[in-house]
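Recap from last week: sequence in, structure out.
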Amino acid sequence: MKLFIIAFIMFFTFICHPSKVIVESIVANMNDRAITYSEILQEGELLNIESNIDPQTPLSAELKEKILDLIMFRIIVFEEARSEGVTIDESKIQEKVKTYLSNVYMKDFRKKYSISDLEFNTMIKIRLTADKMTEIFLDKKFKGKTPSKEEKQKAVTEWQKNLLKKQKLVLYSIP
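Predicted structure tokens:
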């Protein structure tokens, strides 16, 4: 029955809007939230922009996997932050938005993905929230000690793995 409904919807979509059909690949499903290939490409382009690299630079298979992990991590941590009442000051968000918007590639990036101001602000908020939650985690983990960069990286990697283990996760292949 589900297959019939999906086929019917796809058929109806093709008939009504044949020139605007976008077929989206789902690369993961985490806690009933689909993560799409477009999200990986979009995040990869944004990471390139952050590094002042041409956003059209191709992403390696390894980088796509890391980006998927990063997306899943941010989703989890954003939800944790909400449940713990951790917030980001709106002025910090706006300051970061201005920084991003000053990048020469940003206008084309936002146009390509049809990203509204609200969506863009939310993207930045999620990034800043993940950074803040990581800082909170490291402060708790090392309690006043000054860990090396490698120790911090190892701790965050383990934290990410542990967070992912607690999720209902289904992974599919990444194109």
